Amino acid sequence: MLWPLLLTLLCLPMLALPLPAPAQDAGLEGLRATARAFSSVARQAGPSVVFIQVEGPAQEAVDENLAWPFQDDLFRRFFGEDFPSLIPRRPAPRQPRRAIGQGSGFVFATAPGKTFILTNYHVVEDAALIRVRFQDGREYDARVRGADPKSDLAVLEIEATGLPVLKWGDSARLEVGEWVVALGNPFGLSHSLTAGVVSAKGRTSLGISDYEDFIQTDAAINPGNSGGPLLNLDGEVIGVNTAIFSRSGGYMGIGFAIPSNLARTIAEQILTQGRVIRGVIGLTVQPLTREIVEALGLKDTRGVLVNEVAPGSPAERAGLRAGDVLVSFDGTPLADGGQYRNRAALARPGSTVVLGVVRDGRRLDIPVRMGQLNKTALVGAQTAQALGVTVRALSPEEARRARVEKAVLVTAVERGSLAAMAGIVPGSLILEVNRKPVGSPAEFAAALAGAGNSATLRLQENGRSRFVTLRWR
Known about the structure:
six-stranded antiparallel barrel; 473 residues; Thrombin, subunit H
């Protein structure tokens, strides 16, 4: 019985011994190799990264002096002109000031006499003057060649040649846990490098932009990093640093980057066409809940449920139906509605995509010829999203029970949104928008698109109707 105890006691000193020299050397060499990889990325990518300084439109300066509560005339009426020292003198008006902003960007393409820089749209939004500075100190005035607010990307143009272009990487091949490097200008500290790993992929529904498919990383991203590149250890751009999750305004371990495959497609469209042309299928979808999964006899909640097919749309022509479950898009599995929306939007109008569908327990592959998203539908969908409300059409049975001819059913309301503050809840029926009856999400979106910056909705709740007016922008 004593032998196990004696063996344990004899082994304890051995556990405390330092590692042999070869093992220590191997560990140090591994760390040195990682450091050399980071340094290599900085040397390779640094000359292509720019510091962006933006001046916004001139704004009237605010008088910071203490305001006097009485008018001069009233004060003089009681105290007369003999007490001028008691009458505050109005300071001379100050010159309007320009709002100053900053961010990052990187060279992604060149043409004879010109260089093109990709950055975030929110960095250069409403800019009156844009100036970019390279690592070697060269500075250039820039102009916005084109922008896509929906993906929060913008292309800048400068008159320069001979500047190095960063190489695009394939964000689809990126793995969770892979080392990545962020380059940018946090807090105006030019050309700073931070390193970390990919924490997650495919982050959607964050409310950062209309089309979301973010890479999440713990590489430190701070104000001023927006628009800079997220790079792999080969020095390839695999993302565009865009946002942080923070309660303090600074780094808290969670940053988000637009994946390179999305950013590259948007940037090239802006460069070649001057705008982004998005595809459309004509489906309204909703998440799969466990209740729906059980009712339909599905295996899990991956995929999205089709709740409406727009009349005359590519989806209708392809034979898609309400109640179908979309599980893949051109062979790539679909996890949620955000992924479906992104892939549909990026598909080229006129091209054919194959949707993987589960219908009545059978798996089908349905080819769909993509249409082009028109501006009215886009504006309406964006307005509905801004209001924080999601709707679907009523089934004939639901319309009969509610005793309505036309209406859309509110299926979700975003917490803290305009719709929520107006008391709209899931289950509410929207009968009219600005006195115009609506009976489908498409009609609802079209009515919102023509509503300007406010809309009066007629609702029906618990058999009673009421009006609410929502104002935005």
